[in-house]
């Protein structure tokens, strides 16, 4: 199976984690696109109903609405049973690096509403230690140079993602050269640097379940 087929596989598997009749939290990315399509198919076939979705990006909102799935504002719900999203990296404890699609801030907001984060990914995303994938950080544009110097003190090289403006009007720094051995401490530290909107380490909002697609099918990891 190629990577696209693995994404479709885990996208379909994630539909089983949606509670019929409820509002579902929806992440962003190519794997989530597969989940949205599988969710729409399940609804069309009468296997599931949903009261709607809270979306983490304009991209996912458009795809959900194209399928006729109602999109609710985050402010319209007080909680969600499940949030389904991909990751750029996930470790053996469910900590993730996210934000390859520049949607990390809204992803963290919607994930924080949910009782359970179900991560969907192909097996290449499983790592021992976070940090090989360039760490996305959403920032206030005027802080770019200052934050670049600050990441250098941690051994990181930050590069501004050219031409990208997030759904919130922020910019993205991608930071290479980091080895994130204590994700919770790293997230807490970087999050309070002035100019940082959201750091792409998800430790406080880590996954409880990961559906990992590999040669042998879907492996379910629980944390
Ligand atoms: O964090 C994300 C978007 O901001 C995505 O979940 C992450 O980049 C994985 O994307 P894909 O499923 O396309 O590999």
From TrEMBL:
InterPro entries recorded for this chain? Answer: NagB/RpiA_transferase-like, Ribose5P_isomerase_typA_subgr, Ribose5P_isomerase_type_A
Its pathway is: Carbohydrate degradation; pentose phosphate pathway; D-ribose 5-phosphate from D-ribulose 5-phosphate (non-oxidative stage): step 1/1
What is this enzyme's catalytic activity, as reactions?
A: aldehydo-D-ribose 5-phosphate = D-ribulose 5-phosphate
Q: Any idea which positions bind substrate?
A: 28-31, 85-88, 98-101, 125
Task: Provide the active-site residues from the annotation.
Answer: 107 (proton acceptor)
**SUPFAM superfamilies for this protein:** D-ribose-5-phosphate isomerase (RpiA), lid domain, NagB/RpiA/CoA transferase-like
CDD domains with a match to the protein in the record: RPI_A (cd01398)
Q: Does the keyword Isomerase apply?
A: yes
Name this polypeptide is given:
Ribose-5-phosphate isomerase A
Q: Which organism is it from?
A: Pelomonas baiyunensis
